[in-house]
Amino acid sequence: MKKVIYLFIFILLLSSCTTKPHYTVKGKIYGSDSITFYLQKREAGKTVSIDSAVSRKGSFVLKGGAVAYPQMVQLVAGNTRKRTSFYLENTDITVKGSLDSLYKADFTGSKTEDEYKAFIASNKPLSDIYAKIIVKYQTAGQSGDTATVALLKTRLDSLETQMTDLQKNFVKTHPHSYVSPSLLVSLSYDMEADEIESMINGLDTAIAALPQIKSLKERVAVMKAVAIGQKAPDFTLNDVNGNPVSLYSKIGPKLLLIDFWASWCQPCRQENPNVVKIYNEFHKKGFDIVGVSLDHVKDAWVKAIANDKLTWTQVSDLMWWNSAAARLYAVNAIPANFLLDETGKIIGKNLRGDALYKKVNEILGAKK
CA-to-CA distance for 271 and 274, rounded, in angstroms? Predict the structure, then answer.
């Protein structure tokens, strides 16, 4: 009898020792019989499938080995656009929903997903108001009601600030959460290097070691190299005729603007008339521009230059977001610009509209 007991205990111990961390996703998606569901994630800039299962009468089970850490993945229905996102981690996760509204599916069992849902819920009152005002804003714009557009723009800006503050507060108060890296990466597009670095330093060491944060640290280093007060790094790109032009060959006037844009960027095209106006008024007083396009189709780039009457130097490697100059200057949103003095020192960043005019006028306005 004792031998049987010892054998039973041994089997239990062996089982517990050989059980490795893994995930299980049990799905019940109504209307999805015989559909293959895929788990997909972004990796090295590409979408890769990490698991799949065929539904039987709407039910399926996805089982896989350990994921290194909780991370956002997508559950995709076959070759359709129907999909939903959730945080996958090494635990038993259940998903319930309907194929025709897969994006509304509910996930339970993931602690990180619960944290994310709590954040979304806290943001919902503001996002609901924002969505309603956006509709009114677009309607007013289409009807040419500029007064209403200006009023609604102010309200939208205020709401955006409040939603940004909510995200920052979550990151600061949840340093151990695997939701925080994604929020911080999203926030970083509108943050300066010092603030990003400060928020990174507030994260738990395990969270700060994640790939997303490591990449963000690298970007912070680049941002610091192109901060106001720094010497602008040189680069060489071809102009529209294929001739190489270095940035430093254009430094010398009292002011030089490095203007990142693209023909496909609507906000850039809307800003171009302002840049043209400033160029025409101040060029003879020492203001020049080097336009750096993030285009990838030369004909579209050249056509936009002509249509928008951009008469200054234009360069591009036609590499889209892989533009060498954009990477060198940590540009991840356009329009973006850097204002240099006659020594090549950066004295302004991302100045648009009236802000750019005032800065240039402040330096060159009284000079003949």
Answer: 5
Question: 136-146 pLDDT, tens per residue?
Answer: 999 999 999 99
User: Which residue type occupies 283?
Assistant: H
Q: Look at residues 37, 25, 177 and name the one whose alpha carbon lies nearest to residue 106.
A: 25
CA 252-254-260 angle, 5° bins: 80
DSSP H helical ranges for the chain = 2-18, 111-143, 146-173, 180-187, 193-201, 205-208, 211-225, 266-282, 298-307, 324-328, 354-364
CA nearest to 156, candidates 135, 142, 171: 135
Q: How far apart are CA 239 and CA 261, in angstroms?
A: 14
Evaluate the CA torsion angle 98, 103, 109, 115 in order and state its sign: negative
Residue 314: closest CA among 331, 300, 301: 301
- Claim: this prediction has a pTM higher than 0.70: yes
Q: Which amino acid is residue 288, in one-letter code?
A: D
The C-alpha torsion from 23 through 26 and 31 to 34, rounded to 10°, is: 70
CA dist 104 and 94 (Å) reads 14
Question: pLDDT tens-digit profile of 27-63?
Answer: 999 999 999 999 999 887 788 999 999 999 999 999 9
Mean pLDDT of all residues in 301-326: 96
Q: Which CATH architecture has domain 236-364?
A: 3-Layer(aba) Sandwich (3.40)
DSSP label of 35: P
What lies within 8 Å, CB to CB, of 271 at 6+ separation is 261, 335, 352, 353
Do 53 and 161 form a contact (C-beta atoms < 8 A)?
no
The letter for the amino acid at 92 is D
What does the domain layout of the chain look like in residue ranges? 18-109, 118-225, 236-364
Residues 6 or more apart in contact with residue 266 via CB below 8 angstroms? none
Contact in structure between 346 and 229 (CB atoms under 8 Å): yes
Asked if residue 127 has pLDDT above 70, the reply is yes
What tokens appear for 81 in the block?
């656009």
* Homologous superfamily, domain 18-109: Carboxypeptidase-like, regulatory domain (2.60.40.1120)
- Asked whether 106 and 97 are in contact (CB, 8 A), the reply is yes
